[in-house]
Predict the structure of DUF2442 domain-containing protein.
Amino acid sequence: MVEITDAEMIAAQRRGAEAQHTEPRAISARYDPKLKRVIVKLLNGCAFAFPPHLAQGLETATDEQLAKVEILGAGFGLRWEALDVDLSVPGLLDGIFGTSRWMAANAGRTTSEAKAAAARANGARGGRPRKAAS
């Protein structure tokens, strides 16, 4: 068992109190099926929204499942109990929608007809130009 000293406890309480005043905290969260966005209102009066298909664990969730979002603890997280998904509010604001491994595999994977057409045209010309030797 790890013992925590009084000094460590006081330092942790100080960090927690500072986080309460400096880090973004959610006061409400809801899913808007019309906009297809999770909308989060923050304690400081700001709000943000994100499309759930960008977030790990929410990619294939139904509107009914997405509507059951809860705020965790002091507002630092969002939870979808039935989906077993937890997301950090500060992380979402930083553009972190999943674990680092998941983000590496999925970030920037936007497909569109324009992107596909550009890739086909580039491939028809022989692909990416080679870097010139320096």
Summary: DSSP finds five helices and six strands in the chain. The longest helix spans residues 6-22.
